[in-house]
Amino acid sequence: MLSVNNLSVNYGSTRVVDKLNLELGQDEILMLVGPTGCGKTTILQALAGLIPISEGAMSLGEWESTANKHVPPEKRNVGMVFQDFALFPHLTVQQNVCFRLKDTKLADHWLQLLGLDNFRDAKPARLSGGQKQRVALARTLAHEPSFVLLDEPLSNLDAALKDSLRWEIRDALKKAGVPAIWVTHDQEEALSVGDRVGILNKGVLEQLDTPEACYSSPASRFVARFMGEASFLSATFDSSAANTDKTVVTDIGNVPGTPLQGASGNVDLLVRPDDLSLDATLSETNCTVEWVRYEGESRLYAVVLDCGDELKVRVSHENAIKPGTRAFVQLITTHPLAVFPRG
Predict the structure, then answer these.
(1) Is 291 exposed, middle or buried (0-12, 13-18, 19+ CB in 10 A)?
(2) Is pLDDT of 84 > 90?
(3) How far is CA 47 from the centre of its chain?
(4) Average pLDDT across the chain, whole number
C-alpha cells in the first residue's frame, strides 16, 4: 500500500504542496483534480522521485523516501503514463512496449488486451492519439509496476475518444490489479472513473472521498463549485435534534438537507442544475431568465429569482425559453442537499 504522510514540496520559498496525506489501496484508482497550478503534477513528480520533497515521507513495501533520504525513481518500481505519450518514434509498437524487458510474455498479453495486436510493427507516427495512449499504457503495465501515475493521459484526445478510452484504461488497471493515481482537470472524468477523488486547492487537499460524497457533500464551497455547476440558494434550516426530518425551507420549495460546517438558521442551500425544474407556460412566475446555453441533449439556463438569488437550471433541449422571459422555477429533488452556513 502506497502511504503518503505530511508530504510538502517547496519551489524556493513558495510552498506548492502542503502536508499531503493519503493511502492508496491495493487496486484503487485515485483521481486528483484541481485548478491549474494547484500542485497536481508536482505531487506525481514527487511520488515518482523526480523532484525532492521538503517535508514528510512516502513509502511502499520495502522503500521509504523522506526529505533527508531520497529514493531514486528506478528503486520505486513506478509506472508513468504521460499526456504526450512519450513513445520512441524510431521503434515499433512492440519494441516500445518491450523496451528493456527480458520476458515479453506480459507485453504480448497487454498488446492483445488493449487491441494493439495488428499494430505491432507500426511506428508511432502511423498511430492515432488513442492508439498511442494504449501503447504507452501497455508499456507501463508490461513492466509490472507497483503503482501507476497518470498525468492527464486523455488531455490530447478528442471528446468522443476520451469517453471510451477512459474506461479502457480503468479496466486495464483493474485487470492488472495495480493501484493508480490519475491527475485530470476534467471533473466528469474524475467522478466517473475514480474509486476516490481528491480535490486540491493551492497545494492543499481540501477533500478526499468517494465521487458521490465529493459531489453531494462537498467539504467546502470551493469543492462544491469545482466539482460541477453550483448555485447557493438562501434558505432557513433547523439543525436541532428535534428537527428529525431535516427540512430546508426556501422560496421555491422545501427539500431534505444535510448540514455541513454546523449550518443552522439562515443558511445557503447547495443546488445543482438538475435539482430544479423550469416552466414558462404557467401563469405563476417567480424568476426571470437571464441567459441560455444550448448543450445538445439539454439547455442550461441562468435565472434570477424575485428574491435576488441566481440559479442555474438544466432542462431538456425541447424546453426552449428566451432570455428575459418570466418563468417558474422550483426544487424537484427528493434526495438531501448540502446546507452551508450563510455567507
Answers:
(1) exposed
(2) no
(3) 19
(4) 94
Q: Which amino acid is at 279?
A: D
pTM over 0.85: yes
Cα separation, 229 vs 109, whole angstroms = 42
Q: Which three cell numbers stand for residue 330?
A: 422550483
Was domain 2-77+145-221 assigned CATH 3.40.50.300? yes
* Closest by Cα among 8, 67, 5 to 202: 8
Selection from 312, 305, 323 nearest residue 253 by Cα: 305
Annotation: CATH topology of 229-341: OB fold (Dihydrolipoamide Acetyltransferase, E2P) (2.40.50)
Give the pLDDT score at 244.
Answer: 63
Q: Which residues pair with 99 in a beta bridge?
A: none
Q: Quick: pLDDT tens for 174-183.
A: 999 999 999 9
Residue span(s) of the chain under CATH 2.40.50.140 come to: 229-341
Q: How far is CA 181 from CA 48, 144, 160, 193, 304, in A?
A: 11, 16, 23, 11, 40
